[in-house]
Amino acid sequence: MNETRTKRTAGTNRPSGGIGRARGWARLALALVAGCAAVVFSGLLDSGGWLILLTGFAGLALAGAGVWWMLAHRGGARLLGGLLAVAAPVGVMVLYAASGLWVVAVGALALWAAALASARSALRSLRRPRGMHTRKAPPPKRPVLLMNVRSGGGKVERFDLVKRAEALGARVIVLGPDTYPDPVEVARQAVADGADLLGVAGGDGTQALVASVAADHGLPFLVIAAGTRNHFAMDLGLDRADPVHSLEALTNGVELRVDLGDVGGRPFVNTVSFGAYAEIVQSPEYRDAKAATALEHLPDLLAGEGGTVLDVHTDDTHLYAPQALLVSNNPYARADPLGGGRRPRLDTGQLGVIGVRVEGPGQAAELVLLGERASGITSVTSRRVTVEASEGHIPVAVDGEALDLPVPVVCTLRPRALRVRVPHHRPGAPYAPPTVDWRRIVALALGRTDTRTTQETHDV
Fold first, then answer.
1. Cα separation of 350 and 333, whole Å?
2. Residues 6+ apart with CB under 8 A from 267
3. Residue 87 pLDDT more than 80?
4. pTM, whole model, 2 decimals?
């Protein structure tokens, strides 16, 4: 036991060699930045170089403004915005090619990309990414699995999951296609009948409902990645392309302790969305025509005419009237309001909060140029999030499911309440590179490494 703990500690806190590698990567990053600046400066020495450079930045800003006009307007303004979003960057490329500066532009972009990669390697080298702690657990004797045959375009039938699970000793309860009983009631009855493990092959919404029953009774929970997206399965390190592999947890598995979200008394494993996205998914047409429905509703929502004005309170931050708000079960590695990234950990006891407010083409252009560092994006963590509004009920999307909840809507976490059983051997979640902080890169390159730099985990 002591030997295992020693190995884990040594793998987590790197010795001076790790800091030395990080310092080397940081110095390489700064050298590449200097090279990028030198290439740009050499291009500026040509006649009109400054003007062409400024035109390039203006083109990116115009593209961002064009995207805003396309999303926030209808009719001719939308068409004009779409044309601008495409024409501006194309025009910049044509200008650079005609002026002969395209070699300079390509060289500068290549050096900048290499500098970013080196900076991320420097931050990553400071400390090895820590995975969630696993523990050995005996195989279940009476596992019960709920399988939704409609999820994921029919993955349950396509991968023959029912027969494969039954061959491993599991009792399988099929949901759909003709009947779809309440998963919570089915899970509770399974527990009453003696189940010692609950599992779900289906989407994240069904996963959350059954996971809550498992957590209430202290039972292990099995995730079978048979839904459409299965973000929860991805962040657990499961192979979403091979749901059969998830069944190996029945015979050769380990347990993780993860947090379980709660919004207004309803569980969630991934995200709770408020604002524009939550309003859009309420539309009956959304499931069959997502893009067209979003384009139809966005102008009113972005203008503040068709949506609910939200008032959001976290532990330390107040957000008034965000157009979109994403509350996640543990923070995402990137401030992505669509939740398209990944969560490096699911056991920090913290909610991730991402608020977006873009009030015009200027902020849209800033968003294009600065990304998650733009002023229109707020990204914080909190143990409790309270969403208020003047209306009595507001639309909310819980793990992608459209709901209507009474205000105030309170989001919290049940820290490490869920015992998740996963295969002992699994591919793991894809790596999420840390956000580059150039001040820390400079300090690291100059040898001014403080305690926070060496001990803080950037990818946890």
1. 13
2. 208, 209, 211, 212, 215, 260, 261
3. yes
4. 0.76
